[in-house]
Amino acid sequence: MCVKINSHDFHFKHFRDNGVTKITDFFADGELNECRIEYDQALVNYVSKPIYRDEPLVVLWTHVVGADKRTCPLSALPSLTHIIQARIVPYLAKLIKVVSPEIDKPRLQLLEVIVFNKPPQISNVLNWHQDVAYFPLKPNNQIAVWFPLCEVTSEIGPMVYALGSHKLGIRGSTNLHTREKFDGENRELIPDDPSTIGLDVVEYPMTMRDLLVHDGYTWHYSKPNVSRNSPRIGVSVRFITERAVFDPRPGQGAAFTQQIEVQPGDVVESDAFPIYWQA
After folding, report:
1. Residue 251: band (very low, low, confident or very high) from pLDDT cuts 50, 70, 90
2. For residue 86, what are the contacts with CB-CB under 8 A and spacing of at least 6?
3. Residue 1 has what pLDDT?
4. Beta strand pairing status for 275-278 and 107-118?
5. Which residues are within 8 A (CB) of 53 and not within 5 positions of it... i.e. 6 or more apart?
6. Which pairing describes strands 159-162 and 20-23: parallel, antiparallel, or unpaired?
């Protein structure tokens, strides 16, 4: 199912009601081509996973059990940096002011950038989860975008969302490949099939012109890539939407806690997590 919407008002209402919205033709034809070229080059240039403390990092994550996550500085991907700052942040700033009026001083503080690679045939399901469950923040309000660097059909591993799940509060964190609960995790988990509790489960095919925006509490997963020879490359960019402090618990923020020297109760402030916009 693909939801095509064209006006800001409709986007914002759809997001508020469902916790996710797909914006068709957000990008122009070819606008993301340079991002894909830079990603391919980063795979050649960065083969380990250093932690950067003085600027944001990008996780280069291959969806195969046992595969190493690589990292590179965001500055190594200047086209992606431009897309985030010049295209995504201005749109999200408009959205947040409409859908989150309860936030006194809203902001867009960069939290995480990941480029996901699902190789054909051998890639795995990335199981049901919600973003906020994995981050040691309080308050834990987040917004994220997802966009592909290739066409994503049903067989190539699209994103799937449980509509309205963002209204059901925080759930437990698990291993995204195995759904094994982390040690010390005592929160209720997302059900194996959210449709059994009455939620609509919607799959989102995408082109390189489309953008998905979802609430940090919205349940989602990605299907495996069962195509014969087409890798699925997708970019996730996540933001904190208000001033937050460090609030650790099991299974949360491994890379995050390595990027910043912070104690419980400290405000999250670091060059690794820059504020791109605030009201």
Report:
1. low
2. none
3. 42
4. antiparallel
5. 259, 260, 270, 271, 272
6. unpaired
**C-alpha–C-alpha distance, residues 159 and 206, integer Å:** 9
Domain boundaries, the chain: 8-259
CATH topology of domain 8-259: Jelly Rolls (2.60.120)
262 DSSP assignment:
-
Report how far residue 144's alpha carbon sits from residue 150's, in angstroms, rounded to the nearest whole number: 19
Tens of pLDDT, residue by residue over 197-233, are: 999 999 999 999 999 999 999 999 999 999 999 999 9
A 10 A CB-CB count for 275 gives 13
Collect contacts of 135-139 with beta carbons under 8 A, ≥24 apart.
135/111, 135/252, 135/253, 135/256, 136/246, 136/247, 136/248, 136/249, 136/252, 136/253, 136/256, 136/257, 137/240, 137/244, 137/245, 137/246, 137/247, 137/268, 138/244, 138/245, 138/246, 138/247, 139/242, 139/244
Q: How confident is the model at residue 151 (pLDDT cuts 50, 70, 90)?
A: very high
